[in-house]
Predict the structure.
Amino acid sequence: TQQTATGDYENTLRSLKESEEEKSLLLLLSKDITSSRTKKDIQQIVSERLAKYFRFNEIMICLDNSDNLTHTNYIHTITEETMNHPNFAKGASMKYYINDGIHNVIQQTDEQVIFDMYELMRRPNRPYYVDFFYENNVNELIGFPVRVNNKSFGAIYVYVKEKRFFTEQQLQLARAVCSH
């Protein structure tokens, strides 16, 4: 029983430490985001800060356009393989409908949405980015709504090659970051 108490104590300490690290990250990100003035500043936050806490293959931040009908890629952190794909520039610069069955679904939820790329490929009317990332061996798209003051204005798309890539703790932290 003393071993059990020691184990419980160690687990509690570990949980407290993780909670403190999460709070520190959120405060740091909040400070970074509010002080960022350019697209380059945001890119640096994504590629340097977020990459330390979340292992991801590819990430794209897509924002709604002023026409309220379409969204476009704002920032991306991608692999060299993806960047060198012959259709990358085309796909990254396209305007996509907000109501494409993916972006709008992500924006309408308070949680992340995990899409199986194989299932998305079975849809007859899918946006081009599904085909593009499927061709690049992505297995899951994890989408998070981007909100300020409870108003959604975009989505973060995380493309991963392994299914069930993130832990529940990482997903929880990512939700907090996206709705901050």
The chain has a mean pLDDT of 76. DSSP finds eight helices and six strands in the chain.
